[in-house]
Amino acid sequence: MARKLTRYPVEGPNALWQIYRTVSPLKGVKNFIFIQLARYCPILPMKNWIYRRMLGMTVGKHTAFGLMVMVDVFFPEKITIGENSVIGYNTTILAHEYLIKEYRLGEVRIGENVLVGANTTILPGVTIGDGAVVAAGSVVHKDVAPGAFVGGNPLRELGRVAAENESI
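Request: output the structure for the sequence above.
Response:
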């Protein structure tokens, strides 16, 4: 399924040169500072407080972010993560893409009880369903079905996650 993105064409220099026509420089600086604090913070409740209160993200109860997770600096409010999910070390979650002739925005929705492995990149406009597992080092460029085990670049389904009371 295609990513759910809204496209905004630009004229003149590439879209990234025009970033401050779309987002306030003060918002960018404030978000950058709080994201850096959260990246290095070892205290999970404090990280979630920063994400919710300072960045406007929707973060479920008991969700855990590993060290060095990088959330979208310009549009973190477009990121939603359900309860009891784990976002692995050094994962990047993007809600924007600035290209040559356009920029694109898309909400990222990560369900409940989702495991995202280390060094994963999640692109804008994707949904990762409840109970899914994303292998380390993956690039999530399309939606992930609930309960799917996916990995790689390009992303592909590797299997299904076994239910807790199911034998493998």
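Residues 8-158 form a domain with the UDP N-Acetylglucosamine Acyltransferase; domain 1 fold (CATH 2.160.10.10).
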